[in-house]
Amino acid sequence: MAASRTSLAWPAALAIVVLRFVVGAHFFHEGYTKWRDPKPFSAPVFGAAKGPFADFYHGLVWDADGLNRLDEDATFRLWGVSFPDKKDKPEFTGNGYLGRATRHFGFGENEVNAAGGIVLARVAQYRTALEQFEPEIREYKYGLERREHNAEDAARSLASLKKHDARIATELTSKRMPWQSEIDKIWAGLERDINDLADRTYINGDPIQPRLSSRGYLKLTERPGQRLLDTSTMDRYVPYFDMTIGILLVAGLLTRFAASLAAAFLATIIVSQWPFSSEAISTGYQQVEMASLLVLATVGAGKYAGLDALLGGCCTWCCRRPSGGEAATANPERTPAASESEKKQLVSTK
Question: DSSP H helical segments within 199-321, as ranges?
Fold first, then answer.
């Protein structure tokens, strides 16, 4: 039987398998690293977007100006506490992170009280930070108003004025980093303290059963002003996406779909840093990997030492149909009868 036109010689097939494995392993490693050590990685890239789609990517950055971090009421609501009357009279809502932690870990009365104390301690720390950085925050907000006013001025389209506005934006970023970093540390500290509480053996001398190891680490993922699609959401789910793509590619399972999806994902990163812009972040290795993924998708790399080959063989065996000769042998009595016209022609000939 002649070889299929789409079949490859064994050196080429081996190269495809190696390429699939290397790209898949890299995707899995990237996802696992982001999952093991969670840090914001989408915002720095999209915040520095250049090119014709820059405004779209800038709009995806959560709290690009840092103002959502200053929303005291929304912050405390997400933590699970509110102050409807006075600042010194808290009410625990049973929702927010405190409520989720209580249900997740199965806190008892002592643990609930201890968790409430942790939240109130972080509330006090948050308010102290706002008071400490109040002059810097006020100056920063004034700088934002100035930036917005300049953006509405059509006369500032000159190159020299654009450089001036870019310098103002850089100064604003540096001004907000001290208090923004402090607030982020408070959020991270609250998450850490609640999970540490769940892992303690004793609270106030009363023995309890550690629950962190059995019920899992509970992350504080909600943030004020968070949207369905923004960088904070991407930071949460992209690690799982990367690891899933990596596993599928290494196993050679659903390879065309996985490679195409991964290539589209890399294309969004490449477009955010417009290759033709001199100020864009280099995306050279993403471009090379995207091209490799397109090759894997085009040749159907999973049919070479992958699970796609096994699935394809199973589908071929299950969907196999008997040939014409087998059908005729299986039904010897099913012979088409001669038509009436053929019979009349035969009689007239005789």
Answer: 212-215, 231-251, 255-272, 284-299, 307-318
Ranking 129-133, 203-207, 238-242 by mean pLDDT, the lowest is 203-207
Domain range summary for the chain, segments of one domain joined by +: 7-62+227-320, 65-226
Over residues 292-327, the pLDDT tens digits come to: 999 999 999 999 999 998 887 777 777 765 555 554
3-state helix, strand, coil in the chain (%, to 5): 70, 5, 30
DSSP string, 135-163: HHHHHHHHHHHHHHHHHT-GGGGSHHHHH
Q: What are phi and psi of 107, to 5 degrees?
A: -60, 140
Q: Give the count of beta carbons closer than 10 Å to the beta carbon of residue 266.
A: 21
Say how far apart CA 5 and CA 24 lie, in whole Å: 27
pLDDT at 32: 96
H or E segment and range at residue 178: helix 159-198
Residues 6+ away with beta carbon under 8 Å from 212: 105, 195, 198, 199
pLDDT of residue 2: 45
Q: Give the contacts of 201 (CB within 8 A, at least 6 positions apart).
A: 207, 208, 210
Nearest C-alpha neighbor of 298 from the set 6, 5, 28, 3: 6
Residue-wise pLDDT tens digits, 108-118: 888 899 999 99
As given in the structure block, the two tokens for residue 24 are: 């898949």
**d(C-alpha 350, C-alpha 345), whole Å:** 9
Beta bridge partners of 82: 91
**Beta strands 81-82; 91-92: pairing state:** antiparallel
The interaxial angle of helices 96-105 and 72-79, nearest 10 deg, is: 10
Return the H-helix or E-strand segment holding 207: strand 206-207
What is the amino acid identity at position 150?
N
Taking the complete model, does pTM exceed 0.85, yes or no? no
Residue 100: closest CA among 117, 114, 113, 112: 112
Give 339 or 198, the one with higher predicted confidence: 198
pLDDT of 1 above 50? no
